[in-house]
Every structure is written in structure tokens, then in C-alpha cells.
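Human:
Take a look at this sequence-structure pair and walk me through the C-alpha cells.
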Amino acid sequence: MTFLLYKAYQIIVKTNAMQIIKAGIMVALFYAFAFLLHLSTLLWILNKLAPGFAIAFAIVFQPELRKVFLKIGQNDLFTFGNRSRHTYVDTAVVAAETLSKLKKGMLVVFTRHTRLDDIIETGTKLNADISSALLVTIFGHETPLHDAACIVQNGKILAAGCFLPLSEQYDIKKTFGTRHRAALGLCETTDAVVLVVSEETGAISLAYDSKLHYDLKPGQVTKLLENLLEVSAAQRTIEDTIDESKASI
């Protein structure tokens, strides 16, 4: 009961429905006052008016009541079946597709267990909800932030314009630019996953575990990112997904 009351309070406090509670408390106090003092005439009037009060509350506070029930219906508690825990993955992939068509480069880092505080300090802190429009704005225009990386954690863009360490591998293809080398460089020292869009070819790639998987399809990128960001349970399916990509180094 405590849990249910607390959840109800969380829903109600975000709307004007708190006025309903206050009005109901006032009527209840007035009724209790009449009951304790044995004001029989007043009690009779209140009992007769009670159904009318209920209808009046429903009419006067109809918008607030509607918001409350809509909020309850939208709660994840009543959502059945498989749910994506990383809905921001689709957002990032949509932005990558858009930038790929425009031949604009993109570099987005998804954190996992390793903290990237030192990398975040090199950029501009945003702490903004991730959206396709925001990513396209950052990387699709000649702004001071478009040449470096965005750091994403739990659906938040923590910072933009962050500088990544370049890879020390000697067998990297010469056609790969600074973005791909930076993505590999970060993956060599952390467990982060990096989404890269090539400015020259528009190819979408993923880098993690010191490897770069080049020119993947959007569906493959989405599946890989969802698996990689699901922590331990997804590790069993990652290799199967890689085999389907047919384009890795």
C-alpha cells in the first residue's frame, strides 16, 4: 500500500490534480466536523449533496483526471513483452544515416563500465537528452564541436567536442581518417563503443574491443549497439551478429 500510494503521489504531484486532493480533504474535514458535533441537519444535507460533489469534481477537474489516467496508462509497469532498454540507440543510428547521406562525419562514444572523465574534460559539457536533431546539428554544420566526439551515457549527451587518443596500431588502412583512428584509439584503452560516420565515403562503422567494423548497414549497427550496451547477457550474441556483417577488420 505504501508503494502504491507513493507511485500515485508521484503521478498526481506533476499535474494540477493536487487541487482535487485539497478540495476532497476540505470536504472530508467539514464532514468530520459535522459528525463529531452531531450536526444532524448539516450531515443530512452533506449526504444528499455527496453524489453531486463527486460529479462536480469529475466535471471541474476533468483535464487533470485525464492527465492522471493517461500517465498511469503510459507507465512501463503496464507494458508487456520485449522492451528495448536502449531506445536512444535508434536515435543515434537515425542521425548516423542522415549524416551519411549528407557525407558529414560523425563520432559518438557510448560508455560502458570504464569512466571517461578525462575525455569529457577535453570537451564542452552538455548533459542533454540525446536526439537525432541535436546530433545532426552538432556534426552536420561547421561548428566548433563538429570535428571531435560526443560522449553518450544512458541516453544523455554528457559532452561534445571531446578529443580522443589516436590508435597506435600500425596495420590500419591508410584510407582511414582521423575519426576512425580516434575511435580505435579509445577502444584500445577502454571498453567504450564508438559509432563512426566517414566524411569521405559516408560509411557507418562501429569500433569496440580494439577492432573496427567498417561499412555496416543501419540494422546491423542497431542490433550490435543494443547487444553491446546490454552488459553481460548480450556477449553471447555479439559474435553471431558480427558474422552477419561481412565487413570487419
